[in-house]
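**User:** Here is a favour to ask of a fellow structure person. Please take any protein you like and set down a full record of it. No explanation is needed for now; the record alone will do.

**Assistant:**
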Amino acid sequence: AAHTMFYLITYEILICVQNLFDFLHVEQRTEVMEKLVVTFDMRDTNGMRISQIKDYISEHVDEKLDLATIADRFFISKYYLSHYFKKETGFSIMQYIAMQKMIRAKQMLRQGCSIQSIAMTLNYNSDSHFISTFQKHVGKTPRKYVHELHQSKNQ
């Protein structure tokens, strides 16, 4: 228990330091920060770290997310994060991000947002890229999804 508590406290310290760097707009980590990261054991006995990563993705789904950004935010290598996330969730980080984007896209469609605004908000390269990604994940185009929503409301 003491061992786990040490790692949780160390992790919280790392988050606080990162938040301070973000607040001060410090672009490069100091030597002290690098040493803290190196000495931090990445074992996660209760899934807390995965939960925090998932929360971060959900909260920042409207931003351009990639493996390197998330790894930097949580002070782990992108290779380790990729392996660790897949092992713990069964999904790659990019699959999980895509799923979260689809959840957000459905919410926006239910709110009456246009395909163009959704594509722009969720950082797709184009409307057609958003439409094809939506169809791949949801099984229908956004337009058909909205049409079916309206039909179910009218019944």
